[in-house]
Amino acid sequence: MISANIQENITKARSLMAIKQSFDYIERNLFFGKTKVYMLAINGFTQTEVLQHIVADVQSLSDGEGEIRDLETFIDCKLGFAQVAYVEDWEALIKNLLSGQTILIVDGFNRAVSIDTRTYPVRSIAEPDTEKVTRGAKDGFVENIIMNTALMRRRIRDPKLTFELHQVGSDSKTDVAIAYIKGKAEEKLIEKVRAKLDGLKVTSLTMGIQSLKELMIPRSYFHPLPSVFTTERPDVASSYLEEGYVLLVPDTSPEVLVLPCSIFQFTQSPEDYYKSPVVGNYIRLMRLFSLLASLLLLPLFLLFGAHVPLPEEFALVSTEGMTPVKLFIMVLVIELALDLFRYSTSHTSERFAGALSIVGGLIIGDVAIDLEWASLEVLFYGAATMLATLSVASLEMAEGIRIYRIFLVLCTGFFGLWGFGIGLAFVIISVITTPVFGKTSYFWPLVPFQWKALKTLLFRYPTVKAQPSSILKEQKKSNP
Asked: So what's the pLDDT on residue 393?
């Protein structure tokens, strides 16, 4: 508990925190009238100009006055700042201080005043690189939870839109908000999210939103496909809120988590809704085809080219002159080389990414053919597979499919037709058993079947018929 003696509080504060050792702690001994006041703040988290005005106003008003006898009355009369709270124990005081609030410990009172003057370093709002659209909104989430909630509330001016603030991590105490619309989100789902979040036993969210995803859904890291849908776009997040989903908005991360999750969410893109319904449905069907092509194109090419020759009238390319072992090595080399090429361009400065693409596409491919490390056929199917992978809307889904594809290539190369069949069976089992929050089906609303909800995920409807509704209520009907 905070003592009424200010000197004891100063000694306690210096023993609990590295105030004298760490340069970013701000401490000041002030006088409000004849009453001693000890001020604590964190440099870089505090709006210095606002704090100076507050302290200067209070000191000028209290100059020549006597001692403060009623702390609440004094603060109400003299401190006209918007957000002021009182803390009575050191744990709450330290939490508020390290969150960026300014603390005033007043002599003679066993509680401190917490003033919300915080500001966080943050980049400007811009369109997310992974969810670009040719038309539509160009704003995206940033690493500040307050700005992220404001971006959603700007789109949904519903008084029932709620952001419940929780803290995760015994050391980091990372702010995580549970976002939902009362009356649209199911209460049982909200309660499950709340209980799970409060029950997390972890010191800190070291990798931000990825750590939160792995903690919310245990053993999800054994499955390549994502168990949680995430988005960096406020318009997408707002649409899920309107449909009855629950969102987790962590501080220090430019993404939000959407709960629960199904595989059909990864077939959608905001681009579909900024096109006409006909064009949007065409793009969505192409994306579904790209998912299958990304997974099966190279393994099927290896299977039919090395182990199960097709009749000549059905053969699309010739693999004449290549042994099964050589073709398998070529396919594997191209698969790994394309991955290496993609990762190198993604981590390269934009000034050199274009030049690197030309070098990789022309020179390396031509040299690989001359050195007989690859053939035109293998390069073609590898490039087609890469295009199909890049067409997948979700980067996490595309990377998960890539892992499955490499597994299928290895099974097919080593064991032929039986290897392909058994490998494909393992992939299907792995996809079906992908864990999601709330013990729902990863293939909902296909399993259990709910056509009303499924058609809204598969097709892009005109605006007049596609007003957001709580499609999760259909899931509740199927799982009473």
From this structure: 80
